[in-house]
Design a protein that fits this description.
One of its GO terms (molecular function) is siderophore uptake transmembrane transporter activity. By secondary structure, the protein is mostly beta strands. The protein is built from six helices and 36 strands. The chain has one domain: TonB-dependent receptor, beta-barrel domain (Maltoporin, Chain A, Beta Barrel).
Length: 701
């Protein structure tokens, strides 16, 4: 299919969806909301901009952006970001074994060596970057339960955050003492030895200061052999109102995560015993693990200069200690392999200046980040570190400048225009100790990304939008280190066109319906793609593709349907659907082959009955379509459909839930590695979880 025909069909499908689908996104029922997100506090905590500001920024964004309400997510089990992103259209997030480690892709980012550096989406906490300065999320994800809500801006719509990534950015807003009770205790657990305990203590002091501390512990035996996971965490923040106009907030995080890696299986091994560990991963062989100790300190200050001007600025510093045995070379008894032991330090700063002048709403922003990685590669015997055979020293820095204007040039019309400047530096250096051979790759990257968009407010509840934007993402240091030569990789870049609509309307006097639908078409040059070395799993080859296409349709559909006039009984359906079209564009070797890893179609939904007393009950459904595991498109992963049940009840003091997943015990492949040409003998498959049941309780004092 040529580009024009695909774009025409995409736009036609968008219009059909917007005109025919009677659903809504509403505060009282959905896990993911756009217009009316329920929050606990009326006041804005010191050092926060408030959710109303984020909602207004979404209304002024001519593209796909979603708000995730964590309070709604905890109506069921939340293990990791796979659960948090379940209803974000356009996003493909899956955990191989149910632990914190996930494969994350947004609008086709990171469609190569899955479970690797997980680049392509910038992770932020309270506006400050958690991702490395080079864009990697290799060692660290954010615990969604520590957030009040999150904003996921997909693709080029993350320009307000300055994100130079293909998939966009997600900003997690931390809970403060303004959002929770003075004391909150919660416990959840269930199948596969899973148990999560959290305690939060919080206090507001005369509206001038507040403090919150959360202690949590997570343990899971895993549904596969050698997939045990433990994590302990401390999350703390405190705010000060320095004056009527100036407030500041300090943040501290300490995490200790130890995870066993079950590894991939061949098709034959899946049929034999889908819960076994990979042959090299087992404790008696390689004992592959991912152990990370992290601490982070940050500060953000807000100055409300006057009614039309405000300034935000902040800084964060994080250290990660990684111990990561992942490869065995030859017989394990020889103790030869790859154990990565390094320290990553991230320093990040940000500034945002907002200024309203007449019909113009200006935003000027600066991000600057520096990442240092030092350490080495060791041999190991069943996961125990032995002699060092290589030293590593990687540096990266990225400067992102953004200037954006939202101009309400006529009634109901807003023109959004701006540009982003990216300047980045990457350097990787490794020394083989036996030969003193040095491999060094370095390069500088710079680009200007323009953006223009248009929003038409059809009425108070419905808006139409479109944008044309530039995309740009430099390589990570991990990708440079895996390059097939000493020549540095090029940055990927391209253009994306997007159209869409969001809104809600009354269905009846007591019911509401609405939609959030967008379609996009992107042409990319030099997309950075990695494949795993079949002879040495855990080792990768990375190079630039020539031209690729990323296109798709994203739809979030929901409703709040009153079954009685007093609204004591309601139905609240929620559906997220994603159509993907990711492929090479007349590649010399691969032609128009489909890019691997992401499904062509995915749908996640639930239909909950709700009673006024806080009780809810209903079925859930997940459908994931076919996808390829290789660039040659010779190895296909089958589609699957999972059903579940969810129920719970809450009042001012208690919240309880119960959830059953994979109700009919469906066998399926949750995630997989990627090869250039995959074969049946390749151990690349990660089976999904079987029938599982969970329950939890939360008490608020």
């Amino acid at each position: 299919m040529d580009r024009q025909n695909f774009l025409f069909k995409t736009l036609t499908s968008l219009l059909a969806l917007a005109g025919l689908v009677p659903f809504s996104v509403h505060a009282e029922h959905g896990a993911l909301q756009l217009e009316n997100v329920k929050v606990t506090a009326d006041a804005v905590a010191p050092g926060n901009i408030g959710i109303e500001t984020d909602k207004q920024e979404i209304r002024q964004t001519p593209g796909g952006v979603s708000i995730i309400d964590m309070d709604q997510l905890t109506e069921g089990q939340v293990d990791n970001l796979q659960d948090a992103f379940r209803f974000v259209p356009g996003v493909w997030a899956v955990s191989p074994t149910g632990s914190d480690s996930i494969f994350l892709s947004s609008r086709g980012s990171n469609l190569d060596a899955t479970d690797y550096d997980t680049n392509g989406v910038k992770l932020l906490q309270d506006g400050l970057s958690v991702s490395g300065a080079d864009g990697n999320n290799h060692n660290r994800f954010i615990d969604p339960l520590s957030a009040k809500y999150a904003v996921f801006a997909r693709g080029a719509n993350a320009m307000k955050y300055g994100a130079s990534t293909l998939g966009g950015a997600v900003n997690f807003i931390s809970q403060t003492a303004y959002d929770v009770s003075p004391l909150t205790l919660s416990f959840s657990g269930g199948s596969h030895g899973e148990r999560l305990t959290r305690m939060t203590a919080a206090q507001v002091f005369n509206d001038t200061a507040d403090a919150l501390v959360t202690i949590e512990n997570t343990e899971s035996d895993g549904f596969r052999d050698h997939s045990r996971h433990t994590r302990t965490g401390l999350y703390a923040n405190g705010g000060l109102r320095l004056s009527d106009d100036v407030s500041t907030r300090f943040y501290f995080t300490k995490l200790d995560s130890d995870e066993e890696l079950a590894g991939g299986l061949t098709r034959a091994q899946v049929h034999e015993d889908r819960f076994q560990a990979g042959s090299s991963n087992r404790r008696d062989v390689g004992h592959f693990q991912l152990d990370v100790d992290t601490w982070r300190i940050a500060n953000k200050t807000i100055w409300e200069i006057d009614n039309n001007r405000s300034l935000e600025f902040g800084v964060s510093y994080e250290e990660q200690e990684l111990r990561h045995p992942i490869v065995v070379f030859g017989p394990p008894s020889l103790g030869n392999g790859l154990l990565i032991n390094n320290r990553q330090r991230n320093l990040s700063t940000m500034m945002r200046y907002h200024h309203k002048v007449g019909n113009h709403d200006w935003l000027a922003g600066v991000n600057y980040g520096v990442t240092w990685v030092d350490g080495g590669n060791y041999n190991h015997l069943s996961g125990s570190k032995r002699d060092k055979w290589q030293t590593n020293d990687n540096d990266a820095n990225t400067l992102e400048l953004v200037l954006l204007d939202r101009w309400n040039f006529a009634q109901d019309w807003t023109l959004v225009a701006g540009a982003q400047t990216v300047r980045a530096s990457r350097e990787v250096r490794s020394t083989t100790l036996a030969s003193s051979a040095v491999r060094q790759v370095e390069d500088d990257y710079h680009h200007i990304n323009p953006r223009v968009g248009l929003i038409y407010q059809l009425n108070q509840e419905i808006s139409l939008y479109t944008n044309l934007s530039s995309l740009y993402e430099p390589p990570t240091t991990y990708q440079l280190d895996d390059g097939t030569s000493t020549d540095a990789l090029k940055a990927m870049q391209g253009e994306v066109f997007e159209v869409g609509s969001r809104g809600h309307q009354p269905l009846t006097e007591k019911s509401e319906w609405g939609w959030d639908v967008s379609a996009y078409y992107a042409q990319l040059d030099n997309e950075i793609l990695s494949v795993e070395d079949p002879s040495q799993p855990g080792q990768f080859f990375t190079s630039n593709a020539d031209k690729t296409i990323h296109a798709g349709i994203e739809a979030l559909l929901s409703a709040d349907i009153a079954l009685t006039d007093d609204r004591h009984h309601r139905l609240t359906p929620l559906v997220s659907m994603t159509w993907n079209h990711f492929r090479f564009d007349d590649d010399d070797a691969l032609g128009d082959n489909t890019l691997p890893a992401a499904p062509k179609f995915a749908m996640h939904g639930e239909m909950l009955y709700r009673h006024k007393n806080g009780f809810y009950f209903g079925p859930t459904m997940d459908y994931v379509g076919e996808r390829y595991a290789d660039f040659a498109n010779t190895y296909k992963i089958d589609s699957y459909t999972l059903f579940g049940l969810k129920s719970g009840w809450s009042n001012e003091k208690f919240k309880v839930f119960a959830e059953v997943r994979n109700l009919f015990e469906r066998d399926y492949i949750a995630s997989h590695s990627v090869r250039a040409v995959a074969s049946e003998s390749d151990a690349i498959l990660n089976p999904g979880a079987p029938l599982s049941a969970y329950a939890g309780i939360e008490y608020r004092y």
